[in-house]
Amino acid sequence: MPQSLKRPIAAALCSIAALTWTAASSAHEAGEKVTPNFEQAIPNIPGKSLIAVEVEYPPGESSAPHHHARSAFIYAYVVSGAIESKVNDGETRIYTAGQSWSEPPGASHPISRNASKTEPAKLLAVFVADTDDRELTTPTKSPEQSTGVLK
Fold first, then answer.
1. Which residue has the higher pLDDT, 118 or 21?
2. Best CATH choice for the domain 3-140 from the list 3.40.50.300, 2.60.40.10, 2.60.120.10, 3.40.50.740
3. How far is 27 from 62, CA to CA, in rounded Å?
4. Which helix (H) or strand (E) holds 12?
């Protein structure tokens, strides 16, 4: 490849990565900090990418209820502290540092929060998703929001 094309292509790839990472964190509330960690197309699975984000929760903070892209299989690993999580209609569980769980594509995540009121918590969320999925996390509308009726 000519040297004159390498820089524009690299800049375009960086822009695409930045847009994806922004989308991954756009549905999150001020109570958490979402930091991009890694992103790469999976060479032997055309159309799929591996995307990782770190989610930090200050004491007592949580994510708004949300759901994930229909293409996104997720592996979550607790780096530090304790995370309370509920996926779809499953049971609410508390995971501590070193523990992990997975979420199927399109999962609903009604509960994701720091289980402690005094200590911070951090998790690593790893997504395997369609490369062109830009909205990996979307806020879940309550029944009142869906009908336009607020109680």
1. 118
2. 2.60.120.10
3. 12
4. helix 3-26
